Amino acid sequence: MAKLKDVKKVVLAYSGGLDTSIILKWLQTELGAEVVTFTADLGQGDSDLEPARKKAEMMGAKQIYIEDVREEFVRDFVFPMFRANAEYEGLYLLGTSIARPLISKRLVEIARETGADAVAHGATGKGNDQVRFELSAYALNPDIKVIAPWRDWSFKSRTDLLDFAEKHQIPIAKDKRGDAPFSVDANLLHSSSEGKVLEDPWVEPPEFVHQRTISPMDAPDAVTEIEIEFLKGDPIALNGKALSPAAMLAALNDLGRDNGIGRLDLVENRFVGMKSRGVYETPGGTVLLQAHRGIESITLDRGAAHLKDELMPRYAELIYNGFWFSPERLMLQALIDKSQEDVEGTVRLKLYKGNAIVSGRKSKKSLYRNDLVTFEDDRGAYDQKDAEGFIRLNALRLRTLAARNRGN
Amino acid sequence: MAKLKDVKKVVLAYSGGLDTSIILKWLQTELGAEVVTFTADLGQGDSDLEPARKKAEMMGAKQIYIEDVREEFVRDFVFPMFRANAEYEGLYLLGTSIARPLISKRLVEIARETGADAVAHGATGKGNDQVRFELSAYALNPDIKVIAPWRDWSFKSRTDLLDFAEKHQIPIAKDKRGDAPFSVDANLLHSSSEGKVLEDPWVEPPEFVHQRTISPMDAPDAVTEIEIEFLKGDPIALNGKALSPAAMLAALNDLGRDNGIGRLDLVENRFVGMKSRGVYETPGGTVLLQAHRGIESITLDRGAAHLKDELMPRYAELIYNGFWFSPERLMLQALIDKSQEDVEGTVRLKLYKGNAIVSGRKSKKSLYRNDLVTFEDDRGAYDQKDAEGFIRLNALRLRTLAARNRGN
Amino acid sequence: MAKLKDVKKVVLAYSGGLDTSIILKWLQTELGAEVVTFTADLGQGDSDLEPARKKAEMMGAKQIYIEDVREEFVRDFVFPMFRANAEYEGLYLLGTSIARPLISKRLVEIARETGADAVAHGATGKGNDQVRFELSAYALNPDIKVIAPWRDWSFKSRTDLLDFAEKHQIPIAKDKRGDAPFSVDANLLHSSSEGKVLEDPWVEPPEFVHQRTISPMDAPDAVTEIEIEFLKGDPIALNGKALSPAAMLAALNDLGRDNGIGRLDLVENRFVGMKSRGVYETPGGTVLLQAHRGIESITLDRGAAHLKDELMPRYAELIYNGFWFSPERLMLQALIDKSQEDVEGTVRLKLYKGNAIVSGRKSKKSLYRNDLVTFEDDRGAYDQKDAEGFIRLNALRLRTLAARNRGN
Amino acid sequence: MAKLKDVKKVVLAYSGGLDTSIILKWLQTELGAEVVTFTADLGQGDSDLEPARKKAEMMGAKQIYIEDVREEFVRDFVFPMFRANAEYEGLYLLGTSIARPLISKRLVEIARETGADAVAHGATGKGNDQVRFELSAYALNPDIKVIAPWRDWSFKSRTDLLDFAEKHQIPIAKDKRGDAPFSVDANLLHSSSEGKVLEDPWVEPPEFVHQRTISPMDAPDAVTEIEIEFLKGDPIALNGKALSPAAMLAALNDLGRDNGIGRLDLVENRFVGMKSRGVYETPGGTVLLQAHRGIESITLDRGAAHLKDELMPRYAELIYNGFWFSPERLMLQALIDKSQEDVEGTVRLKLYKGNAIVSGRKSKKSLYRNDLVTFEDDRGAYDQKDAEGFIRLNALRLRTLAARNRGN
C-alpha cells in the first residue's frame, strides 16, 4: 500500500457494476486519488452504456470515457489471433485473454491524455486477468503504476465489501446480496463462467450457466448452411454480403448461438499456477475457426501450414499468459501474417446442433490440383516413378541405422 | 524393373480383393517369384478372412499367413499415438497412417521366417501409403527389397488391369467392372474414402461415401452418456467394465457410429507433395481423443501438457509421413509416455448427434485443487500478494524494453 | 517475516564463509530457530571442508552435515545435461544452474531426517539462484518452508552486515572488509564471476577475475592431443584410462585450464527479468561439449540429432530457470537419454590456446559410410537416379505454389 | 533422358573449369541444345572471370553472362541468414548452402530473358547442392526443366570424362589428370573441402586442405582488436569505417584468415540421407557470428532471443536442405527480421590464434541496466520482495504435483 500513497489520479477500467463501483469509491476514499473511468463496449452485451456513465458521474468520477471499441477489438485483436488458429490447451479460443490488452492499451492512453499516474482494474489476485492487464500496461508505459484493489485492500469477505458499498451509498442490485453462483466475463468473442456451481469438475455445468448459446439439444432440427469469404486470412463476407469485422463476428455469433455451437467445459492451467474450470461460449469464433482452417486447407502450402501448427501452442500460450505486447508475440504475428497473404476464397459450412462442419471450399488461390491427385490419367502431371527415389532417399538414414543396429 | 529381376520370393500384403490378386499373379508371372501372402485382420470389417485364404490358395500362393492383429494394433500402435493427442493438420486422427507400420513389420518378419528377399504392397505411386510401407520395411530390414507394382508395372489403365485379370482367371466382382466411385481404406480405428466423387473440394461428400457412421442428422434425439476409465493414459474400462484394447476401441466405435460422431471432410497435404481430399470416419477415436484430453486436463501438469501440445504436430507429422520406426518418433514416444504415468481416472461424456462432450472428470491423481481456485475463503492456500511479485518480475523485461523504445 | 515466525528448525546451505555465517546467526537470533548446516563438496576448490565444520560448531549449529557429493553431481546432473549439448543463449554451459538442484535435494532430505520445517540459502533476491533453490525445494517437498534471508532481513548495507557479524563475534577475513570486486560461484563444472568490475559490458574483464583457466595468450605453444571414449553419451575414459565421472571432469578441467580453454564473457538474460554480465570458466565442460558433439556426429541419426538440436534451447532454459525437477525437464531427459543409447566411441581433440578442436572420431556404432559418400565407384551403395525423384517430390509443393502465384 | 529430348536452350551455371566445360559440350552434343553460360563472381577467389568468358566463347556458348553478384550475395542472402545466428547441426555456418539459391535465381531469370527452357548445374547426385539448385529453380519457375548431367550422362568413370574432354578438345589442366585429392567449393563466405583425403573421419585433415585460413598455430602471437558496428542486425562499419556488405565480409575474412579463425572439421548429415565429412573455412563469418551474438546480447529482449534460438535449428535446416525460397523460410525470416529492428551498436572483439572473443559491447539501444543488476544500492529499481511472489507462483504447480505424488 505504501507504494500507492503518492497516486494522484487513476484511470479505472469501469464496468458500472457493483465491484468496480466499490473500487472507484475505494480509490477515492482510501487513496485520496482522483478517478477517471473508462468503460468500453467490447460487445459484452450491454449496448447501452449510459447507465455506467450516470453511475460514474454520480460517484464523482473526474472524467468519464465511454467508448465503442468493438471494431478495433475484432479487427486488431480477434482476427489476427484467428489467423493463427489459436487454441489454448487444444481447445480454448482465448475469448477473455484477447480483450485484456485492448483495455490496458486504452487505460494507458487515457492516463497519458489525462495526466494520470496510475491505472486500476477489477481483477482478483488468483486469476490470469490481473497478469494480462498489468503486463500490457507495463509494456506500454514502463512507469505507469498499476493498482489491483483486490490484492491491496483489507476487505476480508463479501460482507465487508457490501458494508463498504452501503456506507458509501453505492447501489446494490438485489441479486448481488447473496453470493453469485458463478463469475462471468463477456465480450463480442465469447462469454466465460467460472466458480461456484462449476467448482467440481466431475459435476456437469448446469444449463443456466450458459449465456451465449442454446443447447445443441434445443437447436433446430434443420441444417443452416452458410458461406464465408476470406481475404488475407480474415473473413470479409457472409453469404455474399460484405461485413465489417465486428458485424461479421456478431453475425457469426447469432448463427452459432442458434445452432448450439461453441460451448466448452474445460479444466485449464492458469498462468498463476493452478488449474481452474471454466465454461466458455464462443459461438461465432468456433464457426470462424473451422472456416479459417477450411480456407487454409486449400490455399496454404504444407510447409507454411505445418510451421504455423507447430508454433500455434506457443502463440496461444503467450496470449493466454498476457504477453500480447511482447516482442515474441509480435515476431510470431509477423510470421503468421506473412503466411496469410494468399489465404482467400470461400468456405461453405453446415451448422447443426453443436456441429460446424466444413462442406466445401474454393479459391482462386487454391493449391489443390486434381490433376496431381486423381486416380485417373493425370497426363503427366505426376510421375509415379519419382516416388521411388523419394522414398529411397528418405529411407537411406533409416537403413543405415538398421544395418548398424544389427551389427553390420 | 532390372533391380527386381533377382527377386525369388516375395511376401505380399494381400487383402483378397481384386487389386492385390492381380499383384499376386503379376509377381508370379512377370517376376517369376514365389509369393507368400499375408492377410491381417486389422478390424477392417471382414471378420471372415477365409475367402482370402481360399483365393490365395487357388492362385498358387506358396505360403499363406492370416492373422488377427487387432489387439496388437490397438495396444502397440493406436493407444500410444492417442497418448499424444495426435492430430495431423489439426484435425486428422491418422487412422490409415498408424496401420501401415504394423503391416510392414509383419511383412518383414514373415520374409525372415520364409526366407523371402522382398515384400510387396498394393499402394499406388501417388499416395502416402507407399512411403509408410516402405520406410517401415527399410527401417526394420535395410536389405529387404520392396516391390510396389503400381509404380513398376506397365499397365496403363484400369482396362489393362482387368484384361490381365481375365487372362489369368482372377475373379472380378461385378461392381468392379465400372470405375469405383471412390477408394477406401479401413481398420479398427477408422475408414477413409478418397477420389472420384470427392475430387472437387467444393462439392460436399455424398452420404453414401460414409461407412462407419450414421449422419449426425440421423442420430438419436437422446443423449448417450458414458464413462471411460484411464490408466497410464490408456482407456481400460467403459462404463465400469474392463475391456481389452481392441474391445475398447470396437465398443467406442459402436457408440460413435450410433451418434453420428467422428466424420471429417478434409483437404490435407500429402508427404509426396500434393493436396488431396479425404473423408474420414473415426467414431471411437474421436470419442477417445476428447476423453483423453479430459483426463489429462485434471492429471497432467501444465509444463508437461504444454510441452506435449507443442510437440504434437511434429509427432503427428512423423506418423503421417511414415516415420513410425524412426529414432525421432521413438524419442518423442519416450517423452510422451513419461508424461502419462499418472494420467488415470474417469471421464464422463455425452454423445449426441455428432458431439462428444466431456461433462465430468475425476481422478485420485487429480491436480485440480478447489482450495486454490475458489472465490471463497481459501484458508491460506494461496496468497494473492504473491501475484504482485510474479507479475512485476514477468513485466520487468517488458518495462525495460518500453523504456528503451521511448528513448529513456 | 510473519510467515517465518513459526519456524523451529532450519537446514542451511552453509559454505563456511562470512555471508552464510551471518545467515546462520541471523536464523538463530532473529527467528529463534535451531540451525542444521549442510556443506557440500561440489568441487568448488576447498577440498578441506573441516574449517566449515569447526566454524559451524563454534556458532552453535545443531547438526552439521558435510558431504562430498562430487560423483553424484557429475554423474546425475552434469553428464545428463551434457547429453543434450545444453547451452543457454547459445553459449553458457550452465555451470551454476546445474549445481543448485542437487543442493536443494540434499537440503530437503536432511530436513526430513532432522525434522526441520524449513531450509535456507544465501542467494540474493536479484539473481537466478534463489529461484533454482526454491523451485527445487518446493518440487521435492511441497510443504517445506524456504527462507531467503537476503530478501527478508532488514540490513540495508554491507556495513549493517559487518556490524551484525562483529556483534555476534563472527570472524571476518580482512579482505572482506572492503567491498569484494566481484561475486563468485564455483563447483567442479565451472566458476562464475559477476558484479563490480564486470558491471560495464563494454569494459573487458580484467585478467584477475579468472580463477579456473589461464589466458589463451599464456597457454603453451604446443598442442595437447587427447582421446575421450564415450558410452551411452557419457565420457568414460581419457587417453585410454577409465575414470569415474568426477575424476573425468577434474582431469578435463586440468587440461582445459592449462590450455586456456573455456572462458566466456557473456551478457545474459536472467529469469527474474534483467540482463546481467558474467564471466564463466568451464574448462573441462568446454572440451566435453566439443567431444560429445564429435561422437554424436558419427553415431547419431539425423532425425534424432535435429530433434535434439531443436529442443536443446528449451531444455537449457528449463535448467537455467530452475526447473530441473519439473515434469517437462524429466520428459525431455527421457527423450534425450533415448537418443544416447548408441552414442559410443572415441573422439580425438587438439587443445591449443583456447581452442578445443575435434580432429578425429571413430566408433563401432558409426553411421558414417564411406561407400555412400565417396566420389569413387560406390558399387551400387547409392543410386544417383534416386535423387531426381527425391528432389522432384520435395519440389512439387513449391512448383504448385509458384504456378499459383503467377496466376496459373 | 527421354524427358530431356525436347530441350532447346539451356542456361548452364558455368565456372570455366573442366567439369562444367565437359557439361557445356555434353549439352551441345548429346542434347543438341544451345547453351547459355552464367558465370558469377561470388567471391570464390577468381576475381578475373575473363578466362571463363573466353573458354565459353571458344566452346560455342550461345550467350555468355558474367556477373559480379558479391554485393547481392552478402546483402540479400548472407546477412539475412546471420541475423538468425544460423548454424547447421550446431556448428556449420552454411557457406555453400546460402550461395546456391542466388545462382538458381539468376539461372531462372536468364532463362526467361533468353527464352531458354532449361537450366543445368554441375552438382553430383550424391550431394546437397543438386537439391538446393533444383528446389530453388522449381520454386521460381514451376515449368523450368532442370538438367543435372552428373545424374543423367552415361560416363562411368573419371577416365570416361577425360576421354570425352579430349575428344571434344576441351583443355585439361595437368593437375586434373590424376584424381584430385579432394573437392572444393568457395565463395565470399567460405570455402569447403570434401572427399578423398578427408574420407576417414578418424584421420585429421591435412594442413594443405585449407585455403582460406592459416592454422591457429601459425597465427600471430599478438592479439588483433577490432570493433564492428551494427544496424538492424547487420554489420555496417569496421573499426569506424563504413563498408558495403561485400567489403565488410571481405575485410572480416582477411582478419579471420590472418588469425587462424573459422576452421571447422565436421561430420554432418546430408539431406539426401548419408553422413559426410567436410572441412569448412568461414573466417569472416565466424567473427561475424560472435559479434552478432554480442550485439544481440545487450539489445535483444529475452523473449525475442529465446524464440529465435528455438527456431534457429529449423531455419538452418531449411537453408541447408535447399528451401531458401520456401514459404516457411520466408515466414521465419519475417519473424527474425522483426526481431532485429533495434539490434544496433558496437561490439569489440579480440582475434587471437583461432579465437574470436567478444570483449565489449555497447549500444544506444541497450537493454542492460546496471541499476537493476547491481549488488550496490539500486535506489528502488528492483524490489527484492517481488522475487518471493514470483518464485511462489512459479512453484505452485510443482508443489501441487509433489503433494499429489506423495498421495496427499
List keywords for this structure.
homotetramer, 408 residues, alpha/beta, Rossmann fold, Argininosuccinate synthetase, chain A, domain 2, five-stranded antiparallel sheet, 13 helices, elongated, EC 6.3.4.5 (chains A, B, C, D), arginine biosynthesis (chains A, B, C, D), Argininosuccinate synthase (chains A, B, C, D), nucleotide-binding (chains A, B, C, D)
Commentary on this structure:
4 copies of one chain form a homotetramer. In chain A, a hairpin with a 2-residue loop joins strand 9 (234-238) and strand 10 (241-242). Chain A is an alpha/beta fold and 408 residues long. Helix content of chain A is 41%, strand content 19%. Chain A folds into 2 domains: 2-76 and 98-178, Rossmann fold; 184-300 and 342-360, Argininosuccinate synthetase, chain A, domain 2 (Alpha-Beta Complex). Chains in contact: A-B, A-C, A-D, B-C, B-D, C-D. Chains A and B meet through helix 5, strand 11, strand 12, helix 9 and helix 10 of A and helix 5, strand 11, strand 12, helix 9 and helix 10 of B. Chains A, B, C, D: Residues 182-399 form the Arginosuccinate synthase C-terminal domain. Chains A, B, C, D: InterPro entries: Arginosuc_syn_C (IPR048268), Arginosuc_syn_N (IPR048267), Arginosuc_synth (IPR001518), Arginosuc_synth_CS (IPR018223), Arginosuc_synth_type_1_subfam (IPR023434), AS_cat/multimer_dom_body (IPR024074), Rossmann-like_a/b/a_fold (IPR014729).
